[in-house]
Specification:
The chain is of the alpha/beta class and 260 residues long. It folds into 2 domains: 180 residues, Rossmann fold (3-Layer(aba) Sandwich), CATH 3.40.50; 59 residues, Helicase, Ruva Protein, domain 3. It is built from 10 helices and 9 strands. The strands form 2 sheets. A 7-stranded mixed β-sheet has the order 4-3-2-5-6-9-7, with helices on both faces. Strands 1-8 form a two-stranded antiparallel ribbon. α1 packs across α2, α5 runs parallel beside α7 and α8 packs across α9. It starts with 13 loop residues before the first strand and ends in a 5-residue tail after the last helix. The mean pLDDT is 93.
Length: 260
């Protein structure tokens, strides 16, 4: 059988612990989808348990040729092994209905994966998998936490986020220098947040650009405002809930000067 060697440039750390793999896969709810896409299966330790779940449509996407050849030999019954980059993938080309995205996500592109999920949120109803612990905590943190930030707000608009469990370094080959965290994102009922989403993202990023300062400073430096009588200006960004950030966006949009 073809052997697979972890490649540093791809951020590969292969999970070795079968019990953890089983636990990750058992965390998929199976609610609202029959299709699953695994990102970066590597040696297929998650893939094996995903196959046992008997999802109607299981596909994997892998950028590493060595892993692709290995997976074809190991799992001849696996439906489709897509050779490519998830960040360039058109989900609509491969999936007609709703799906779950799973995986031991490469740490070097994990945030980019999540932003792609947001772009496809009407199709991706669940995400379940492993991230660097710091990123996992950021995804799930709420207002008032030092980990609460841009990613927390943007994801929690459209998803319920749950930190499930922590994974130690030694269960990977090669072991990463940090712990990992398994997270589950479940799509909520929000369809429209009532403000322009691109502008909402600008406001959130501006707010956290100077996270130690009050919003009066960060928002004033990012936008040309007609007045500063904003109820949130004496707060720091980590004190605002998702709903408060939406209200702040509405206020900034109403009170900014538009350059003609």
């Amino acid at each position: 059988m073809v052997s697979v060697h972890p490649k540093k440039n791809l951020g590969q750390h292969f999970l070795k612990d079968r019990e953890i793999a089983r636990k990750v896969v058992s965390s998929l709810t199976g609610n609202g989808y029959d299709s699953v896409l695994e990102i970066g299966p590597g040696t297929g330790i998650l893939t094996e348990y995903l196959l046992e779940r008997n999802f109607a449509d299981l596909k994997v996407i892998e950028i590493d040729n060595e892993s692709v050849h290995f997976l074809k030999e190991k799992f001849p019954g696996l439906g489709e092994i897509i050779r490519g980059d998830f960040l360039r993938m058109d989900l609509g080309e491969y999936f007609k209905g709703s799906l779950c995205i799973a995986g031991n996500f490469p740490y070097n592109i994990s945030s980019q994966i999540l932003f792609r999920v947001l772009e496809s949120r009407d199709k991706v109803v669940e995400v379940c998998g492993m991230f660097q612990k710091e990123v996992a905590e950021r995804i799930c943190s709420g207002p008032g936490s030092r980990d609460y930030g841009i990613l927390s707000v943007l994801l929690q608009v459209f998803y319920k986020t749950e930190y499930l469990f922590t994974v130690p370094e030694h269960v990977f080959s090669p072991p990463p220098k940090v712990k990992s965290g398994v997270v589950r994102l479940t799509r909520n009922e929000v369809k429209d947040i009532g403000v322009d989403e691109a502008f909402f993202t600008r406001v959130v990023k501006a707010g956290f650009a100077q996270r130690r300062k009050k919003l009066r400073n960060s928002i004033r430096s990012a936008f040309d405002l007609q007045n500063e009588d904003c109820p949130f200006f004496d707060l720091r960004p980590e004190q605002l809930s998702v709903e408060m950030f939406i209200d702040l966006t509405r206020w900034v949009d109403k009170n900014r000067r538009i350059v003609q």
